[in-house]
Hints:
Layout: H1 14-22, E1 29-32, H2 42-52, E2 60-68, H3 82-85, E3 88-96, H4 122-131
Parallel strand pairs: 1-3
Antiparallel strand pairs: 2-3
Amino acid sequence: MTFRPLPYTRTVSVPLRALENVVTPMTRLLIVVEEDINPADDEQVEWAYAHRVNAGEGGVVIFPGIFGSPIDPSTPLEDRDVTQLGTGLWNRMLIDATRSWKNPRQAQWGNERFPPTVRPAPEDEARVQRRWSEYGLDDL
């Protein structure tokens, strides 16, 4: 399947352009992160999702009626008609978990557009890890 290239405008985000290059017939969800997030690390991706996605500003985009699998149980029966469609129809979703370029640069953030990531001090993290079972969370 080929996708029509998006025209270049200031409103078309880099994550939306990424969708053109990585989507396959079986891709239903694409979460785009920046270079400071390891896409293979679920915890980092979830952090980016929680702290960088603004659904009201285009951070979540749904593409309805894209060709998908006729055997997907979430596809309504009328969208699974292989004789009519050649395949099934899906809705695909793009989640933009990148930093907003709309933010003005801030001197307190090192002249960046997004505040630096804050983590507990390493000794505090180590202490929590050692005491995890005392909190009743050792099976996590």
